[in-house]
What does this fold into?
Amino acid sequence: EIVLTQSPATLSLSPGERATLSCRASQSVSSYLAWYQQKPGQAPRLLIFDASNRATGIPARFSGSGSGTDFTLTISSLEPEDFAVYYCQQRSNWPFTFGQGTRLEIK
Amino acid sequence: EVQLVESGGGLVQPGGSLRLSCAASGFTVSSKYMSWVRQAPGKGLEWVSVIYSGGSTYYADSVKGRFTISRDNSKNTLYLQMNSLRDEDTAVYYCARWMIRYFDLWGRGTLVTVSS
It folds into this structure.
């Protein structure tokens, strides 16, 4: 099973700042990585698929990069609605696995 | 409107059984890959099972032999039969549509609590 390790566990930033979230895979997943956002009491929402492709309706301030084992989700300028938990997920190998999440909180 | 609505969660004793349902609207369940993903209280996401459009099914090791995924095409509904439930199965269970490269549609989830 591929283990995804996200860092940091919690990121405290202010609106307008740049956020950089990391996801590291225990073995190569090529570009088969997605990012999801989850707010309290809500289901996850797809942000990025195949490492760098924004999903429909996702603002341009969200971008993804990386391949192999190291991936990054960047939010260029934080809006108040961006404070949430973010998960990465790989589809390279069964079983699909998710990272443990990064909580982005308001500083 | 394209949506998924789960139901069937509740409180069950260890060793008991429960069947979750996921009613789909706006698309045909049998033509897509459909999954169950769960989230234990305060924890991250864990993929549980998937059913392919062709009917093949796959399970996480943690539930293999205890859970069964199925669908009723006439009702456009996905199911998860959960047997021999354990404390560690306590979670919100989401059904989600798997579009080969990503989960693009999720339900709101249904809470399963396993406790004596």
User: Anything to note?
Assistant: The mean pLDDT of chain B is 96. Chain B has no helices and eleven strands. Chain B touches chain A at residues 43-47, 50, 58, 60-61, 94, 96, 101-104, 106-109 (CB under 8 Å). Residues 31 and 53 of chain B are 5 Å apart (CA to CA).
